[in-house]
């Protein structure tokens, strides 16, 4: 067979296996789920309980960071701001399809913002665990559930990482209307079993995808198709 045919075949196999890998990684291919996994394994190692990963709470965490409208300076330091308490019922819950009457108490939050994207475990230890206060929040016995979110502003830098903790009951707090979370992009949140990889959900230019498509078009045209 001609070299081009082999190339095309190889290309097809690559795409098919990439697709299969994507399906297999459905649950874990999401930086917010990976952040919850890192957090829970750290809690377990510290003999704290594993927290329930609540998708409604996590979606609220994504709305919470979106309220900063990409302004990193408002996250920490002298200009630090916090969304108003009323926003939870007025904006965050409706945007997520969370039944307002099921909003539970927030027992802790961890929030960080960086211009550079890092892996979830690095975001956990390097961005969110800044000081002893963060450790105290992490290991608190008050929490029963957790929700995490990561969002780029307008699909690019800076990147916001947010973890909200609650002491609500897993099946009766942050309940989603119809049982499904409203997926909103850009940004990823935990607990919803949705795939949310960096390339299509967080970054403006999906470089890998365009290179792959470019390569396919190139190999097709070199075959004279
Ligand atoms: C848990 O996280 C803290 C903060 O990053 C770190 O100091 C500690 O070593 C971690 N513990 C484990 C068991 O990974
Ligand atoms: C746990 O909750 C109690 C009562 O709401 C509060 O006084 C305490 O500071 C909380 N502990 C932590 C580590 O947040
Ligand atoms: C949950 O936390 C809130 C605020 O810290 C507290 O007032 C409430 O008593 C807690 N509820 C339970 C069930 O622990
Ligand atoms: C919620 O969970 C509790 C304890 O696991 C259970 O007793 C209760 O029936 C559940 N409620 C619903 C509405 O599923």
Automatic annotation (TrEMBL):
InterPro entries: CAP_sf (IPR035940)
Residues in the signal sequence: 1-20
Keywords assigned: Signal
Keyword Signal: yes
Highest taxon, organism lineage: Eukaryota
Record's protein name: Ferredoxin-like protein
Organism: Coffea arabica
